[in-house]
Design goal:
10% strand, 9 strands, acetylation, Glutaminase, 14 helices, alpha+beta, two-stranded antiparallel sheet, binds glutamine, hydrolase
């Protein structure tokens, strides 16, 4: 298959998933803070970036929204890069858990959060970064996520402020973590880093590029920037695969078969290892806080293109090989 035929096939698959789901209106926009509830519910955008740099998009793929929990894997990768696996593992585990994203719970055996994809684990990561970088923690996060997106990500002040005003559960988690010895700096500073991280504005296109950067083992396929180290990407994709959808993670792994992460702002990032990043945006969420149409779109793309990690037909690899020539360095 030529690369042009591959790009057309990928665009058709995106268009098809978008059209199939255009009329679906189940679910509800996150309303725990007013700034999120104001998002028009019917927006729907999809984007994908191959490792070779082919970008396809459809619908509201350039409409901004807040990244929320989709930031968690990228913050984890940054912490792994800066602090190393040993230090990060002391603060947060890599164990899947069947609890909701905001549960106030530590692993009773280790007194650490189960994994970095739930709030407790992400706040532990924010704590490690705040302890290591002080007031620069948020700017470092913003700079690294911007490099991964190939765009300067801006803070949504309104969402940040409402989150800070109402985020008592997350504050409680931060106090619990300090008591458990995960970090020693003030819990308010830690949640401030976390709230700002969650309030960064992105688009589905940005998420596709960020996912593409993980797919390309840390190198942004559009800009060539080297964003994350190989070891950080490996651990990050592994926890995205096993823990990315909270209490729905096992079902996701079977149905879609891709490392992915959702957020209550309506975004999802999904990664086809060494091949493709996918970004979706649809604000209506299911009862677990996962964007419904985005999840379904990932499932359709996975089926259509054979992207499931354990797909038997290998069609996805053939398509994506055409679009993502593997370099001489074997990456
Ligand atoms: N699942 C999410 O996207 C949650 C993010 C949100 N900022 C929170 O911490 O509650």
């Amino acid at each position: 298959m030529t690369s042009r035929a591959g790009a057309a096939l990928l665009q058709r698959a995106l268009d098809h998933a978008h059209a199939q789901l255009a009329d679906q209106t189940s679910g509800a926009v996150a309303n725990y803070i007013p700034a999120l509830a104001a998002m028009p519910p019917d927006l729907f955008g999809l984007a994908a970036l191959t490792r070779g740099g082919t970008l396809v998009e459809v619908g509201d793929s350039r409409h901004p929204f807040t990244i929320q929990s989709v930031s968690k894997p990228f913050a984890y990768a940054l912490a792994l890069d800066l602090l190393g696996r040993r230090v990060v593992r002391q603060g947060v585990g890599v164990q899947p858990v069947g609890d909701p994203f905001n549960s106030i719970e530590l692993n009773p055996q280790t007194r650490r959060p189960f994994n970095p994809m739930i709030n407790a684990g992400a706040i532990a990561v924010a704590g490690l970064l705040t302890e290591a970088l002080g007031d620069q923690a948020f700017e470092s996060l913003r700079a690294r996520l911007s490099l991964a997106a190939g765009a300067t990500l801006m803070l949504d002040e309104e969402v940040y402020r409402s989150e800070a005003e109402t985020g008592d559960r997350n504050r409680a988690i931060a106090y619990l973590l300090r008591a458990a010895g995960t970090f020693h700096c003030h819990p308010d500073r830690v949640v401030d880093t976390y709230f700002r991280q969650c309030a960064l504005r992105v688009t589905a296109r940005d998420l596709a590029v960020m996912g593409g950067t993980l797919a390309a083992i840390g190198t942004n396929p559009l800009t060539g920037a080297e964003v994350f180290g190989v070891d950080a990407v490996r651990d990050t994709l592994a926890v995205m695969f096993t823990c990315g959808f909270y209490d729905g993670a096992g079902d996701w792994a079977c149905r879609v078969g891709l490392p992915a992460k959702s957020g209550v702002g309506g975004g999802i990032v999904a990664v086809v290892n060494r091949q493709l990043g996918i970004g979706t945006f649809s604000p209506r969420l299911d009862a677990h806080g996962n964007p419904l149409r985005g999840m379904r779109a990932c499932e359709l793309l996975s089926e259509d293109l054979g992207l499931h990690a354990f797909d038997a037909t290998n069609t996805g690899s053939r398509l994506l090989d055409a679009l993502s020539p593997v370099g001489a360095d074997g990456r």
